[in-house]
Amino acid sequence: MSIMVEHEKRRRDILEKALDVFMEEGFQDVTFQKIADRCNITRTTLYIYFRNKKEIFNYSIKQLLGEMEENLLLVRKTKNLNCADKLIRMLLFIIDRLEENRRLLSVILNYLLHRSGSDSNPDDRVRRRTIRLRHILATMMIEGIRAGEIRPVNIRSADDLLYGLIESAIFRLVVLKHPSAVELKQAVEMAVRQLQVSS
Description:
Layout lengths: L1 H24 L6 H7 L4 H7 L3 H25 L5 H18 L1 H13 L9 H23 L8 H21 L6 H14 L4
Helix pairs in contact: 1-2, 1-4, 1-6, 4-5, 4-7, 5-7, 5-8, 5-9, 6-8, 7-8, 8-9
């Protein structure tokens, strides 16, 4: 059991240090050797944990999105909240994670802006996780409409609106380098309250 714990601890350490290298040099200029050097391990040891730098990169994104998805599903199952409050809690959680992970977001943006033709598609697993996050938000709205707590609206349009606030948070945090996303958190609450049926 302790071997498995040590393996996961080393894996997390590699991901954290690799992220520093990606931030300093950009995805294109990072080599597997540079990551191994930063981690004070050999390239051979690094291969035990990851096949290549893209796998390290994708795993970092997958880890963040997986954590978000787990939390959103927990919020969805919360019994003492109405659907609007669940949506607000979900969206605020996502924005909080984005604020905490702005370094990773910066690396992702840099990667997307500088990728070449052969590398033009993001990892399918990452794309699927992003779609699942959107699906959870849409499902929550559908449940709210069925429960009479959310106004009957076009789900796709409402989902685009809410997800657009998430994309706006990414833009503000990474491109504009705002210190926080407080205004967007207020916009999230305002948008969801507009969807809520008045009591």
